[in-house]
Amino acid sequence: MTTETTNLSDRGEGSQAEISDEIETLHAGYQQRRQQGEPPAQQPSLDFPPYRSSILRHPTKNPRHVDPETIELASPAFGHTDVSVLESNLTIVHNGEPLGERMVVSGRLLDGEGRPVRNQLIELWQANSAGRYIHKRDQHPAPIDPNFTGAGRCITDDDGGYSFLTIKPGAYPWKNHRNAWRPAHIHFSVFGTAFTQRIVTQMYFPGDPLFPLDPIYNSIVDPDARERLVAKFDHSLTSPEWALGYRWDIVLTGSKATWVEPEGDDE
Amino acid sequence: MSNPSTSPAPTPGQTVGPFFGYALPFEGGPDLVPPHNPKAVRLHGYVFDGNGDPIPDAILEIWQADQDGRIPREPGSLHRDGHTFTGFGRSETDAAGHYQFSTVIPGPISSTGASSSSGGNDAGADSKAPFIAVAVFSRGLINKLHTRIYLPGHEELHVTDPFLTSLDEEDRATVTATRGGDGSIRHDIHLQGPQETVFLAFD
Ligand SMILES: [Fe+2]
Fold first, then answer.
1. Distance (Å, rounded) from C-alpha B74 to C-alpha A30?
2. Which among A23, A48, A58 is the top mutation candidate for probing chain B, defined by the most B β-carbons within 10 Å of its own β-carbon?
3. How many CA within 13 A on the CB side of residue A230?
4. Minimum CA–CA partner of B72 in chain A
5. What separation in Å is there between the alpha carbon of B72 and the centre of ligand 1?
6. What is the DSSP letter of B109?
7. What is the pLDDT of residues A41-79, one digit of tens each?
């Protein structure tokens, strides 16, 4: 019943060994450049061929360096008119409890100077505990959980804090290469105080044996930067007889300039 | 706790993947201004890969000032009330790689950030052309990309704008939208290839 509907660039024919070799070579090249004085790469490489569908979807020219303009130094505003407090609880969307390990995912949203980013929007989405998304394009023959959709939102508090209650997502197969598996992860979408800080990323779980095999995780060639996507188990976030707890702070990119609201404006 | 003497290292981005469609798009997301509003303009186009094939699983966000060059500060994008201009929109591409927004052409923003119409005396002081800020996400695109859409309607500023004038003609065309016969505004984004869009790194 699982007919392949994904396009050809995803229907990878390579083996995990080939992909792992390519990852290793690209990481070794980075380490060599580091030894020659290249600064640490804080962001993933956009050109990372082991992730096959990136081959035709990365720019080949260098980005144009610009000073951000006024609009780019501001950010869309979100608030409690946009998001209900119930949306941070992914376990109460349906009539019954979703299957899986119930857990709290909590942390702080910080800007490049370590200051809390207050009243800003965080969205997340994830697979269910069996590794299946509710999305219609997900063809993985794992069960759909009728009690789990897997999308949530929240607005950060005065300390930049956020907290979701959800279940731990399962690892899932994909078609990058033969027998490819993604480590368990939660997709995060985050706004900052400037549009330049906009980020979409993925949070992972500590100790996942799939880490070295995954071309998406390893597109971040710097090992310390990769580590920053891994949440920490935090016993202080657990609740007895109820939920495990993971802590993950999100740090936005710094920009020297900050937009200051004009004083005495017309409202 | 963060140490104030050292800036914390940033969290790296990752691809939006293929399965954002049930989470990120929201009702009214592409409509910064209701399409039936007489001021509304349709901004639309395609997102292409390096083969020139349209990308059916990209998602674009735009962020802009209003017609008077005022930067919106009102929340409410996710539950639009039909008249507050929040300046933010989100549109996923359809099966044909096509996106569209309903919005207004932003006015020039004065250097103080105040609107040029209410700011008054320094309205003409800026040589900068207004634009719509864009963030691009897609399956296969490992991290977000930033670009800009410069628009018809403020062409006199296109010849003085320091960024636009720093680009050669071909590159300038990749960040400048065109007016269609039906009054709509057309702008394509090429992630790769001979017409590759100019993407930005912020200093
Ligand atoms: Fe995923």
1. 44
2. A58
3. 18
4. A76
5. 33
6. B
7. 999 999 999 999 999 999 999 999 999 999 999 999 999
